[in-house]
Amino acid sequence: MERIQKVLAHHGAGSRRQIDKLLQEGRIKVNGKVAKPGDQLQGGEKVSIDDKLVRFPRHIIKPKLLMYHKPVGLVSTRSDPQGRPTVYGQLPKLQQGRWIGVGRLDINTSGLLLFTTNGELANRLMHPSFEVEREYAVRVRGEVTDEKVANLTSGIELDDGMAKFDLITDGGGQGTNHWYHVTLREGKNREVRRLWEAVDVEVSRLVRVRYFNFTLPKWLKPGKTRFFDDDVVVRLFESLELEYPAENKNKILKAAKAQSKTRHGRRK
């Protein structure tokens, strides 16, 4: 038997945090009864979310990982009360499971978003306790002094607590076209913009260029996606100390190694 959060996360119903929220709101049922956090499944139960039956495949599907270059003007939620277009409407369709977003970007921010079909992976990449690093390119308006940089890297009290940048580097440019690169390990709402605003500097453009070990390539244009190979996903699970859920992990790594040798031999 396994906890309902783990089972649903493995099958792409959402991240553990999202599933916990659904459970607390009484939106998940097992065999017609409202489920509670910590309930366990032994297999064969009828599980529904918002009265929609969850279909469990006979075999656990290989987790998929996708990078999306989000353009300005899209919201990162699955649906929007105001009817604005969402990033989920731009993603490739899946035959099994569904895409789970790894973090969000606000409507006026562009750049790298990761999506996976595995809730455990999404949770590990988002959970504050793992302090996953994010990097942004920021175009600013306003004077940026050494004192302001020192304040931004030592910590500033925001409405929802202390926040800071781990690193700020000058990206060049003149006047209203001056860029900086900033890194941080939190995902508070509009945190990058609010930190700069706290020192009287306006952000005129914001692009996420890196999340964890994944960097937005220059060739990936806004609105375009990039699938990662299975071996990349396997190694990501290993680096995060997660158990890869599919059975053919070793076969995937062996095939990737053989393919790499073939490519290297051709270059010679």
Descriptive notes:
- Strand 13 (167-172) and strand 14 (178-184) form a beta hairpin.
- Among the domains are: 2-53, Structural Genomics Hypothetical 15.5 Kd Protein In mrcA-pckA Intergenic Region, Chain A; 133-211, Pseudouridine synthase (2-Layer Sandwich).
- The chain has helices at 4-10, 16-24, 119-126, 146-154, 191-198, 230-239, 249-267, and strands at 2-3, 28-30, 33-34, 40-41, 47-49, 52-53, 65-70, 100-102, 110-116, 134-141, 156-158, 161-163, 167-172, 178-184, 202-211, 214-215, 225-227.
- The strands form four sheets. Strands 7, 8, 9, 10, 13, 14, 15, 16 and 17 form a nine-stranded mixed sheet that branches. A four-stranded antiparallel sheet has the order 3-2-5-6, with no helix packed on it. Strands 1-4 form a two-stranded antiparallel ribbon.
- It contains seven helices and 17 strands.
- It is globular and about 65 Å long.
- It has 268 residues and is of the alpha+beta class.
- The mean pLDDT is 88.
From the structure above, extract its key features:
alpha+beta, single chain, Pseudouridine synthase, Structural Genomics Hypothetical 15.5 Kd Protein In mrcA-pckA Intergenic Region, Chain A, nine-stranded mixed β-sheet, 268 residues
Mean pLDDT, to the nearest integer, reads 88
Coarse shape = globular
Distance between the termini: 52 Å
Proportion of residues in extended strands? 25-35%
Low-confidence stretches: none
User: How many beta-strand segments?
Assistant: 17
CATH class of the domain at 133-211: Alpha Beta
Number of helices: 7
Class per helix and strand makeup: alpha+beta
Q: Please outline the major beta sheet.
A: 9 strands, mixed
The CATH homologous superfamily of the domain at 133-211 corresponds to Pseudouridine synthase
Order of helices and strands: EHHEEEEEEEEHEHEEEEHEEEHH
Helix content: 25-40%
- Looking at the overall shape, the CATH architecture of the domain at 133-211 is 2-Layer Sandwich
Radius of gyration: 21 Å
**What is the third-level CATH name, the topology of the domain at 133-211?**
Pseudouridine synthase
